[in-house]
Amino acid sequence: MAKPPLVLQTTTLWDYPSQHYGDTVQGDPDYAGATPSFVIWNLLSRYTHKGETVVDPMAGSGTTLDVAKDLERKALGFDIAPFRKDIARADARKIPLKNAFADFVFVDPPYSTHIAYSDEPACIGRLDAASKDYARAMEQVIREIDRILKPGRYMALYVSDSFKKGTPFIPIGIELFGLLKKRFVPVDIICVVRRNAKLKRNHWHTAAIEGNYFLRGFNYLFIMKKRPAKKSLATMDRRDKAEIRQHILDRTPAKAPAKQGFRPKKTGHKKPGPFKK
Ligand SMILES: C[S@@+](CC[C@H](N)C(=O)[O-])C[C@H]1O[C@@H](n2cnc3c(N)ncnc32)[C@H](O)[C@@H]1O
User: Among the four residues 96, 103, 130, 200, which has the most C-beta atoms within 10 Å?
Assistant: First the structure.
């Protein structure tokens, strides 16, 4: 199936039918837990300009790096268990960058222990989200993101709540949003439709009905802004008009030329005349 063109999402419900856009892939299709690349494409298109620096402190298979390259942004990726050569080893709780370095930060952290990313003892994916340790670790990650982000600029965190059959539901999204709000100004909360392969299997849906629980149908995308430094003009609230016009033109299907000499057809209906008694 041909993939639909990428467009800037304009509501708080984001959806795209593929993990990757275009004729190439972004990140690695076999990497469990990779972020759908259209999410990062939309964020970088809106909140960064060409040549600016994007950081992903939990870069996984490198989706952020690939999208940044497509959009001509510079990108730095770190991970506790680097998956490719252009990702440096670092703990997201201690990012090796100076203060106020990044123009944008994207992060898609582990959501509890659902995926075994690596054997690294410092992997946050080894911490159960029901424990205080997960929240503590994520609070440190968020503090680091705040430190490396330039004032007045944006960050986004992509996350799902956690539910395992037979254990209590954990609203990770809501909990992480609470942590983010302590440091950043909320810009918006986006619901991203999940389209993972598991959701296509009928028996998962049957089990959800029989067990009276719900499958995860969406991920949260929290978009936050770091308060501008006093007297700083480093805000990005409006997009460049020419850039937006070009974006719309690039995605507007060409209209078929109008037929010459076209006249509306007569339908044969007579106009109602004056009412006669
Ligand atoms: C959901 S995946 C990120 C997926 C990535 N956005 C992609 O598209 O491939 C979460 C990543 O967090 C990494 N991670 C876990 N604990 C970490 C830590 N303490 N510091 C840095 N990275 C960590 C894992 O190794 C994993 O690659």
Answer: 103
